[in-house]
Amino acid sequence: MLTSTHQAVHPVAQIGVAADHGGFVLKEELARWLRRSGYQVRDFGAFELNRADDYPEFVVPMVRAVAARKLLRGIALCGSGVGASIAANKVPGVRAGLVHDVYSARQGVEDDDMNVICLGGRVDSVAAAIELVRTFLAAQFTGAPRHRRRLAEVRALEYQDIYP
Asked: Can you give the CATH number for the domain in which 37 is found?
C-alpha cells in the first residue's frame, strides 16, 4: 500500500480525511468504512455540519500531514471536490486528483503517485466513493522511468519557477 515516496513507518496504514460542510456526510461514511476495513483514520474535520465553514480550514492541515509523510494518503472532500483539489495542490509534496471514476483512481496512483484523492459530497454516492477510495488505496506507483521523470518536473515547479 505504500507509494514510492513513503517509508514503511506505519504499522497500520493511517489515512487522513477532511471535509467542509459539502463533503461532511460523505466523509463520515468513508471514515466508518475505512475503520471497518482495518485502517487507522485521522479525521481533520469538520466535526459537525456547519454550512458556514470553508474547505481550506480542514483540507490544508490534512494534506500538510500527507506531504510530511505522517499519513499514508489522504481523502479531501467538499461539495464538488474541485475546491478541495485546488487547495490541496497548493501544498508542495501533495499530488491530489479530483476523481469520479475507477480508472483515474488507479491510474492516478500508478502513473502520477497521487497521494490525495478528492471527492464531491454532492457528486459521489457513498457506494461509488467507497469503490473509488478502495481502488485508490490498493493502487501502487509503478515507478516507471517516464513517470519518475515527469514527477521530477512537477517537483521542480513546486520549488522554483522553471517555466516562465
From this structure: 3.40.1400.10
SS3 state at 28: helix
Q: Which amino acid is at 60?
A: V
- Give the separation between CA 142 and CA 79, rounded to whole angstroms: 31
Taking the whole predicted model, whether its pTM rises above 0.70 is answered as yes
Instruction: Answer whether residue 42 is part of any domain.
Output: yes
| Grid cell locating 71 | 499519513
Structural domain span for residue 93? 14-159
Q: Is residue 1 part of a domain?
A: no
> pLDDT of the chain along its 164 residues, tens only?
333 343 333 445 799 999 999 999 999 999 999 999 999 999 999 999 999 999 999 999 999 999 999 999 999 999 999 999 999 999 999 999 999 999 999 999 999 999 999 999 999 999 999 999 999 999 999 999 999 999 999 998 887 765 55
